Amino acid sequence: MARPQFSERGDHIASHEPIRVSRYRGFTRANHWVTAACLMVLAISGLALFDPALYFLTGLFGGGQTTRWLHPIVGVVLFVSFALMFVQLWRLNLPRREDAKWMAHIGDVVKQNEDKLPELGKYNPGQKFVFWGMSGLIILLIVTGVAIWEQFFPGLVSIPVRRIAVLVHALSAVAIILVFIVHVYAAIWTRGTLRAMTRGTVTGGWAYRHHRKWLREIAARDNKGPAE
Ligand code: HEM
């Protein structure tokens, strides 16, 4: 073996187990994936109802009538499921002073120069934008969706109001599909993020790199041992 140049013989890697930090419990993950599945069904069935060119997509749901019945029902499930997620997540998604600095350095975010970015809590401003964007759009979608739900609420609103509701519903749907694409892209682009929502944990390195304030707080708490 070559003689070591930069280390002494006794130096060695003491552990190969990376630190894992718990980020989402099982309930939150199940809640997230139910919401995600609902949004995908809604997007596909909604597009199928939106334009005749996409009508063939109704075949995925057993035809036009079933699609028309299913779409609003899944909409209600999405609303309830997202509301459950909202109560768990809203507090840590509130804007903070360091968010402005992060946004001012958006170029470094894209170049992944983390050393130039401020330390952040559990969520970065991009994630917060997705969170509040989805929250607002889901409220718009459910309100306008119920207004145009002929089967259960015929005549709930006047025809002029219905016209506006249909327009707002379609525009909000396009917007949430775009936010969804941004969300999935960001989750894949930031390596090591997907496992937060699959296994529930992230590595210590990931937490240190992307959400250092969050990690510091947990580490300080864990060092004190369990609360009395
Ligand atoms: C295939 C689709 C999806 C994938 C792969 C995905 C992936 C992820 C991942 C990996 C996280 C954890 C990020 C982190 O904690 O740093 C996350 C968080 C989250 N996801 Fe998704 N997601 C998907 C669809 C959705 C949909 C459809 C919604 C809502 C309608 C949604 C709403 C959220 C929210 C609210 C969070 C918590 C982050 C925050 O509060 O800012 N996701 N997602």
What does this structure look like?
Helix content is 62%, strand content 3%. It has helices spanning 26-50, 64-89, 97-104, 106-110, 125-147, 159-189, 194-198, 204-210, 212-223, and strands spanning 20-22, 201-203. The chain has 228 residues and is mainly α. The protein has nine helices and two strands; from the N terminus they run βαααααααβαα. The chain has a single domain (23-221), classed as Up-down Bundle (Fumarate Reductase Cytochrome B subunit). The longest helix is centred in the last third of the chain and has 31 residues, at 159-189. Strands 1-2 form a two-stranded antiparallel ribbon. Residues 23, 32, 35-36, 39, 82, 85, 89, 93, 123, 127-128, 130-131, 134, 180, 183-184, 187, 193-194, 196-197 line the site of protoporphyrin IX containing FE. Protoporphyrin IX containing FE is lined by residues 23, 32, 35-36, 39, 82, 85, 89, 93, 123, 127-128, 130-131, 134, 180, 183-184, 187, 193-194, 196-197.
